[in-house]
């Protein structure tokens, strides 16, 4: 994968400049050592908001900047695994086995990808049974945290791609995480559901994981040609202030094209504006301290 050597200049929040210019973020400094990882859950109970696209491409961008990254596919659809070229439906062991207390070590379930510094903990349809099977378990909300604990020193960042729900699997991700990043489609109905997600995050903070922080809300699927997208982002900024990232992910056909090719847009179309958006998001999250 290409490694950037300098930050691009002249970026703006939106094509056409409607939301004004923003300061770019510096290329992250190389790490002199690796681990322990900061664990970040990417979640939104609404589907179709670009959550898996953001998980895969943010992971790839951080890996480009020399971070050792583990992407945890925590959705029974296995989309994050497929997005990195992993045929998870053929696998014998997945994250499901770790949740169920299998004797298999976590490191033996993790798979390397064809991208330097980027590994994946895969999932497939088996994971859909975990929510029911965990109900009777002791400390059921901490199953993922227990599975990740042995490997956290091996990585700088662990990203968890959650399923689109607020069920037990998402609660497991929030208990395992240090922070939360919320990909939010620039659409009215997507915005309405954020309050419920924030309420769930606060409950997990209060009852299960006091260290959890809401690191960022990332506007996705932004279309600068429409007044609707601009108004949604402005309202989200009014409600959440500087928790909303300066970086916005614009809608483009290149994202589904890259998904069909089973690779991140950063390798599918490295010079495309969508690739640079995720590199910029990675730089911004490092600058915010959300990731290493």
What does this structure look like?
- With 292 residues, the protein is α/β, with parallel strands linked by helices.
- The protein has one domain: 3-Layer(aba) Sandwich (Rossmann fold), CATH 3.40.50.300.
- Helices cover 37% and strands 13% of the residues.
- It has 13 helices and seven strands.
- Helix 1 packs across helix 13.
- The N terminus is likely disordered.
Question: How are the SSEs ordered, and which strands pair?
Answer:
Blueprint: E1 38-42, H1 51-64, E2 69-74, H2 79-83, H3 95-99, H4 106-109, E3 111-112, E4 118-121, H5 130-133, H6 143-148, E5 157-162, H7 168-176, E6 179-185, H8 188-192, H9 194-207, E7 213-220, H10 227-240, H11 254-260, H12 265-268, H13 273-288
Short description:
It is built from 13 helices and seven strands. With 292 residues, the protein is α/β, with parallel strands linked by helices.
Largest sheet: 7 strands, mixed
What is the H-and-E element order?
EHEHHHEEHHEHEHHEHHHH
| Name of the CATH architecture | 3-Layer(aba) Sandwich
CATH superfamily: P-loop containing nucleotide triphosphate hydrolases
Helix content: 25-40%
| Tally of DSSP β-strands | 7
Task: Order the strands across the largest sheet as they lie in space.
Answer: 3-4-2-5-1-6-7
Q: Helical element count?
A: 13
- Computed structural class: alpha/beta
Separation, N- and C-terminal Cα atoms: 20 Å
What fraction strand?
5-15%
Question: Which class in CATH terms?
Answer: Alpha Beta
Question: What would you report as the Rg, rounded to the nearest angstrom?
Answer: 18 Å
What overall geometry do the principal axes of the alpha carbons give?
Answer: globular
């Amino acid at each position: 994968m290409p490694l950037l050597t300098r930050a691009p200049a002249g970026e703006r929040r939106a094509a056409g400049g409607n939301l004004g210019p923003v300061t770019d973020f510096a290329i992250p400094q190389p790490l002199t050592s690796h681990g322990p990882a900061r664990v970040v859950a990417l979640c939104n109970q609404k589907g179709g908001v670009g959550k898996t696209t953001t998980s895969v491409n943010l992971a790839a961008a951080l890996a480009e900047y020399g971070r050792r990254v583990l992407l945890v596919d925590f959705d029974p659809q296995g989309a994050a695994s497929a997005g990195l070229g992993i045929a998870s439906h053929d696998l014998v062991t997945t994250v499901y086995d770790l949740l169920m207390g299998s004797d298999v070590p976590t490191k033996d379930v993790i798979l390397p990808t064809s991208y330097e510094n980027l590994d994946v903990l895969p999932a497939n349809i088996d994971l859909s049974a975990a929510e029911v099977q965990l109900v009777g378990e002791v400390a059921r909300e901490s199953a993922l945290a227990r599975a990740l604990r042995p490997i956290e020193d091996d990585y700088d960042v662990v990203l968890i791609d959650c399923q689109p729900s607020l069920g037990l699997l998402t609660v497991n991700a929030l208990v395992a995480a240090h922070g939360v990043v919320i990909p939010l489609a620039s659409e009215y109905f997507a915005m309405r559901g954020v309050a419920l997600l924030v309420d769930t995050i606060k409950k997990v903070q209060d009852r299960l994981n006091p260290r959890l922080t809401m690191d960022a809300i990332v506007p996705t699927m932004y279309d600068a040609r429409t007044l609707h997208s601009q108004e949604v982002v402005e309202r989200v900024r009014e409600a959440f202030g500087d928790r909303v990232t300066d970086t916005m992910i614009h809608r483009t056909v290149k994202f589904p094209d890259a998904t069909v090719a089973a690779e991140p847009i950063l390798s599918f179309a490295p010079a495309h504006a969508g690739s640079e958006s995720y590199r910029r998001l990675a730089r911004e999250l490092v600058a915010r301290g959300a990731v290493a």
